[in-house]
Amino acid sequence: MGTVSLNLFPIISSRQKLNRNRVSTDQRLLRKKSITDTSLRVNQISAKISSLYSCAYNGKNSGVLEKDSVSLTDGQLNSEMHDDGIGIVDFFCGKKLLITGATGFLAKVLVEKILRTMPEVDTIFLLIKAKDEEAAMERLMNEIIKTELFKCLREKHGMLFENFILSKLVPVVGDMRKTNIGIEEEVANRIATEVDVIINSAATTTFDERFDVALDINTKGAARIVNFAKKCEKLKLYVHVSTAYASRQRQGKIIEESFGKGHYVVSGAGKNEAPDKHVLGLNIQAEIKLASEMVESSKENEMDRNLKDLGMRRAQKYGWQNTYSLTKAMGEMVVEDTKGELPVIIIRPSIIESTLREPFSGWIEGNRMMDPIILLYGKGKLPGFFSNPDMALDVVPADIVVNSTLAAIAKHGGKESKVEDNNSNDHVYQITSSVANPLITRDLLDLAFQHFSLSPCFDREGNPIQISAFKFFSSIEDLLSDMKSTSSNDEISPRQEIIRRKSIEHFKYMANLYQPYTFFDGRFDNNKVEKLLECLSEEERKDFGFDVSSIDWEDYITRVHFHGVRKHVMKETALK
Ligand SMILES: NC(=O)c1ccc[n+]([C@@H]2O[C@H](COP(=O)([O-])OP(=O)(O)OC[C@H]3O[C@@H](n4cnc5c(N)ncnc54)[C@H](OP(=O)(O)O)[C@@H]3O)[C@@H](O)[C@H]2O)c1
């Protein structure tokens, strides 16, 4: 097992030159002052929850004095960056953010981290799909605030928790599939005059999503939000959350490289430039047309299947894993082509899994990526999988992704809105582990075997489920014939036979869907993220560290991740 160190965030390592933590007295005073201001504000707004929208928009926390103190802090930081790190906390102080996708896994961890560690942030607008403001607020409360993820913040603020949260978070009804990202005009205008940073984490993450839907959210949605970002008067940065798998490369070292400019611009997204340069013949507009023609020509009962198949076929044609990664890649292309003068960074995480350390270890939501296979194995329903055991599975804990993103935002947003050179790749960050600290699939599944042997799952009768060592199959047929040969010879009822057939079909489907990942031969470089880490001060490394090379995978997988998945996804209550 490729373990490197027991500590995730070492204070000093030989390969990283650390900056000394020399926060100036003035900065300490400014920080202290804004913390005191925040406590005062919490008391002041306690009676105003019911009028949240007017509270958020009508000049809350936006007095002239506060604005002045924010710009002063930014100025100081720019000149002292090398001594004091990036200045993450100072950057977020007094800022207004718009975040999409906050009912999803990643953005929730991001929002929690900002509120817990940088309560001086002014306002976070959360774009939420909902029929009206009330429904958006309900989603904010039920799907974000009430999750266990927020328990540390809840403890920290006690009785004032909801007041604090509602003084910072403003749900905004919106939809990436609609013009102006679905925000009502008046609200959009207000946000456009106030917001400093936009973080777009919204996506459909279903690998084989309907092609029209995935295009609409992941590709055209990117164009819509960039178009909106361009209208934001004081925007310092647009942050586009993409995926490492947006790259088509499947072998060797995959560097942090932008798609560059010159791809096709989605019409109706603002500027409509000539489609003179394409990626290997890929024409985004033609893909959109193809999907809408399929919608027109499909019978109602065949529509879903046709559009799912179409997306997968198009992805394969151009060399991407699936509809998701193709439409995410096209989303990036659209961002590059439409951004113009807009300062942009692109964040490309690989496989995001449970939190390593913050706000507590093992928080995860949803049965995602590698977990469905591991859980089926733990439950004795899968003997192994169709996979290359020697491959590096590129996993990154969610809090590492969040910390890297915050550091990148402060670094790029803190600059005087300097637009990156179009040929530069400086704005693309791969938050990945397979070059810096590879987790080998065989090691992961050995750990799964040890874990489920020691802490077995239980069947309906309450008996522990025995499992054997994880098997690796080189073809789907081998996997299925192993499953057939080990299934019981006892006579089964016709109903059980139907269930058995359906499971086999399901495993076949999963094996096909996962194949591009389970036989992936590339490794994602994270050179720029490592360089970013070097810019952090000692204090920032403690609070915002993201050193993937120091993750002890054995500890993370067994002590943190499997427990997290069983507790938060399987909802098991008693685990050894
Ligand atoms: N999870 C990973 O392993 C991983 C890895 C690499 C990159 N990423 C990227 O990271 C980002 C976040 O991923 P995640 O795992 O947090 O995803 P997730 O849990 O599936 O959440 C997706 C979010 O996007 C929102 N969304 C979907 N369609 C929308 C629309 N039409 N309008 C507005 N919001 C919409 C969802 O809102 P609803 O709740 O209303 O559906 C949800 O909040 C994505 O961009 C993804 O591509 C994820």
UniProtKB/TrEMBL annotation:
This is Fatty acyl-CoA reductase. Catalyzes the reduction of fatty acyl-CoA to fatty alcohols. Keywords: Lipid biosynthesis, Lipid metabolism, NADP, Oxidoreductase. The keyword Oxidoreductase applies. It comes from the Eukaryota. It holds the Pfam family NAD_binding_4. GO terms for molecular function: alcohol-forming long-chain fatty acyl-CoA reductase activity; alcohol-forming very long-chain fatty acyl-CoA reductase activity. The keyword Protease does not apply. Belongs to the fatty acyl-CoA reductase family. It catalyses: a long-chain fatty acyl-CoA + 2 NADPH + 2 H(+) = a long-chain primary fatty alcohol + 2 NADP(+) + CoA. It is an enzyme of class 1 (oxidoreductase). SUPFAM superfamilies: NAD(P)-binding Rossmann-fold domains (SSF51735). Its EC number is 1.2.1.84. GO terms for biological process: long-chain fatty-acyl-CoA metabolic process; suberin biosynthetic process. InterPro entries: FAR, FAR_C, FAR_NAD-bd, NAD(P)-bd_dom_sf.
